[in-house]
Design brief:
274 residues, 38% helix
């Protein structure tokens, strides 16, 4: 089978990092996500994935597992709810966690949306939206489902400037007050060490938004419900991790606290924009 070429922007190219991480996980003897679709996509895409090396690949899998845990809980409480992936890339969460009833919107920039549809076509309850997280014209398509709503943005907002992130939060809060919003934040120690990470040395994009304390974002019209690190995942999520992660991450958090503890996965409730 001929391989599929990819043409992505500088930041969009970073979506291939977690894709490769999930593909490697799918090949493992004891996978965490068991994302067979990620493995198939890597085998079909014409790209030098081998240049991505380092612990960030495994970290991207752990990160997805933490976000999956929150989405899974939301769907258990609201089986007919709506999940919106802000910057979906080639994430297969809408396939991994689908319960047969929920509505899913996978939003990303047009070049990424086109690539996504090649591998992950829409279905009756899943819709790819070609738009930026900075846009708002897609809001009414989501609102038409009636909710409740869960917005998840994994490894996306970090590439924006702070005022852009705040604008996204404010717009969502005004249109979807009370909805859940989850996204990751990176502290200064993490941001200063990007060029030491072999995975990031393989791409040109760099994260720009620094947030040392997710609690400080409550001034933006958010209420922080949970904040997790790789060393402190949800207990039900941790039980599915191999021992090297379940016990190794807390040890690493003690030995190298800035590396582990300044990168956080967060769950918020949107309040009315301020």
């Amino acid at each position: 089978m001929a391989k599929e070429p990819v043409e992505l922007g500088t930041v969009q190219e970073t979506l291939l990092i977690p894709l490769y991480g999930r593909a490697l996980d799918a090949r493992a003897r004891r996978p965490i996500l068991a994302d067979a679709e990620a493995r198939r996509m890597v085998e079909r895409i014409d790209y030098d994935f081998a240049k991505f090396r380092g612990p960030s690949l495994g970290g991207s899998v752990l990160r997805s597992a933490i976000f999956d845990g929150w989405v899974r809980r939301f769907l258990a409480e609201h089986p007919d709810g709506t999940v919106v992936e802000l910057g979906a890339g080639l994430n297969t969460r809408s396939r991994r966690l689908d319960n047969g009833r929920a509505r899913w919107f996978d939003l990303d920039l047009p070049d990424t949306a086109e690539l996504r549809l090649r591998f992950l076509p829409d279905s009756e309850r899943t819709e790819t939206v070609a738009a930026s997280v900075l846009d708002t014209d897609w809001f009414e398509r989501v609102a038409a489902t009636g909710g409740p709503y869960f917005f998840v943005s994994e490894a996306v907002l970090l590439y924006l400037e702070q005022d852009q992130v705040r604008g996204v939060v404010d717009a969502l809060g005004r249109r979807f007050p009370g909805a859940a919003l989850s996204f990751d934040t990176g502290g200064g120690a993490m941001m200063r060490n990007q060029d030491r990470n072999p995975v990031f040395r393989a791409v040109d994009a760099r994260m720009t938004w620094t947030c040392d304390d997710p609690k400080s974002l409550e001034g933006w019209g958010l209420r922080l419900r949970e904040s997790r690190t790789f060393a402190t995942p949800q207990p039900d999520v941790a039980r599915a991790w191999p021992w090297r992660h379940r016990y190794g991450m807390p040890l690493l958090a003690r030995l190298a606290p800035p590396v582990v503890n300044t990168y956080r996965m967060n769950l918020f409730t949107l309040e009315a924009g301020r």
